[in-house]
């Protein structure tokens, strides 16, 4: 089971004049900015009859010839930064170019694509999936292949749009990670929570949305410990080889916990505001963490976070992502006092952890179109979110304030529309379109 958190990536797309035949990718949070001349891109390779893809296609693997055709346009990116940073820049750019070349055409207008993210990079929180969802949504919207979201949109139609975005977000994830599971982009697109199973990569994953998943207060703590999904997967594989019966029983128990949590959330007597309901859900999280630790995918810093939370009795903690570092999430006890929460935060700060107050179970990909906020004023024109304001927003708080977001016990997003929570009709006019995932 995977659930959305209220930390997001945001993408602002600005269409240029007809004479400006360039596309620019800006990602100031990682120090990336690069422009390409549209006419110089490898359209001849991507437009071959056997290579050309349509917006409704399922792409389950990258085409090596298309990947190779992009290399000259990726090799010139960020040549003066460290090898580690350059790898991150080129991964993000490869996802962008592969989607742009697969879905777009030589006649595409010049644009500036500016990304901002409030999600820690490399912390096991799906930051790359969030970015891929933004890029997929933006290009599909520019192609006018998405409908809505609007207030009278049928649920089936809304889910079709979510699936369309998700398929191409998965392609972006393949560009970045090579062989992703698909769960991160799925929950980033659809929001709330899903029970996700993927076996045969030639077919779409089995995804059971949990639309009833409640929005829950969460404390997210980044260990700042680097991690490798491949290493953690290898640990479990080695344990499975050495102790096959025991490892299988642990994996079965983890599966049973997921089923129990799923059934409990859907049960008529579940109440997200009831202390006993939260206690039971928290207990399942704690048991899940213990089993993951038994598989060897925890880390001393993750265990330390759990100890600190337990010491003040404020909630239930488990690792997230592949483990081995990254982040831990704590489901907060509704009875926890402000003073106790502050005490925990001070302890976490004292040991060098990075913390975020967020929510679990929010909406998926959304659109603010046109990029105008009224901030409660009666001014019909409102305040336009332009490139200058977007680039210069200071940190997470600055970005969220600019795009009309407030996160407390529950997430509030002024003017945003979501396919997972269909709202009023979205105006498709205007040259700037912010997208969040």
Please mark out the parts with pLDDT under 50 across 5 or more consecutive residues, or reply none: 423-431
* Global shape: globular
Strand content: 15-25%
SSE class:
alpha+beta
Q: How far apart are the termini?
A: 18 Å
What kind of assembly state do the chains in view correspond to? single chain
Q: Give Rg in angstroms.
A: 22 Å
Strand arrangement in the largest pleated sheet: 4-3-5-2-18-12-17
Helix content: 40-55%
Total DSSP E strands? 18
What's the tally of helices? 13
* Average pLDDT number: 88
Main beta-sheet strand count, sense and barrel state:
7 strands, mixed
Mind sketching the topology for me?
Layout: E1 2-3, E2 9-15, E3 22-27, E4 32-37, H1 43-46, H2 64-74, H3 83-103, E5 111-117, H4 127-142, H5 155-177, H6 183-190, E6 193-197, E7 206-209, E8 216-222, H7 229-242, H8 244-266, H9 275-294, H10 300-312, E9 315-319, E10 327-332, H11 338-350, E11 354-360, E12 366-367, E13 372-373, E14 383-384, H12 387-392, H13 395-402, E15 405-407, E16 411-413, E17 417-418, E18 432-436
Parallel strand pairs: 3-5
Antiparallel strand pairs: 1-6, 2-5, 2-18, 3-4, 6-7, 8-10, 8-11, 9-10, 12-17, 12-18, 13-14, 15-16
Helix pairs in contact: 2-3, 3-4, 3-5, 4-5, 4-6, 5-6, 7-8, 8-9, 10-11
């Amino acid at each position: 089971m995977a659930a959305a958190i209220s930390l997001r990536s945001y993408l602002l797309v600005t269409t240029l004049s007809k004479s400006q035949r360039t596309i620019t990718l800006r990602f100031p949070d990682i120090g990336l900015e690069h422009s390409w001349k549209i006419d110089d891109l490898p359209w001849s390779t991507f437009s071959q009859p056997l290579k050309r893809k349509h917006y409704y296609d399922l792409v389950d693997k990258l085409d090596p010839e298309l990947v190779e055709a992009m290399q000259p346009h990726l090799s010139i990116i960020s040549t003066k930064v460290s090898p580690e940073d350059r790898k991150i820049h080129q991964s993000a750019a490869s996802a962008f170019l592969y989607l742009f070349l697969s879905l777009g055409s030589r006649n595409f207008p010049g644009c500036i694509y500016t990304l901002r993210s409030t999600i820690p990079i490399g912390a096991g929180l799906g930051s790359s999936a969030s970015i891929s969802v933004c890029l997929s949504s933006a290009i599909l919207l520019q192609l006018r292949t998405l409908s809505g979201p609007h207030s009278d949109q049928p649920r089936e139609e809304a889910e079709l749009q979510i699936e369309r975005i998700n398929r191409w977000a998965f392609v972006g994830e393949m560009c970045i990670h090579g062989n992703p599971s698909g769960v991160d982009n799925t929950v980033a697109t659809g929001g709330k929570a899903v029970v996700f199973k993927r076996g045969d990569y030639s077919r779409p994953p089995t995804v059971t949305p949990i639309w009833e998943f409640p929005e829950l207060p969460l404390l997210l703590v980044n260990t700042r410990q680097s991690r490798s999904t491949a290493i953690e997967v290898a640990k479990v594989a080695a344990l499975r080889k050495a102790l096959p019966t025991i490892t299988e029983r642990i994996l079965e128990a983890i599966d049973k916990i997921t089923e129990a949590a799923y059934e409990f959330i859907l049960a008529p007597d579940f109440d997200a505001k009831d202390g006993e309901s939260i206690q039971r859900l928290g207990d399942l999280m704690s048991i899940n963490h213990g089993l993951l630790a038994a598989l060897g995918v925890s880390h001393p810093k993750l265990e330390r976070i759990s100890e600190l939370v337990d010491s003040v009795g404020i909630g239930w903690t488990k690792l997230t992502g592949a483990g081995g570092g990254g982040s831990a999430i704590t489901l907060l006890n509704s009875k926890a006092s402000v003073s106790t929460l502050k005490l925990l935060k001070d302890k976490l700060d004292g040991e060098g952890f990075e913390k975020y107050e967020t929510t679990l179970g929010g909406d998926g990909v959304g659109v603010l179109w046109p990029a105008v906020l009224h901030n409660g004023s009666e001014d019909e024109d409102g305040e336009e979110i332009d490139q200058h304001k977007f680039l210069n927003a200071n940190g997470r708080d600055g970005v969220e304030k600019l795009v009309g977001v407030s996160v407390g016990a529950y997430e509030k997003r002024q003017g945003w529309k979501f396919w997972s929570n269909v709202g009023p009709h979205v105006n498709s006019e205007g040259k700037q379109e912010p997208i969040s995932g």
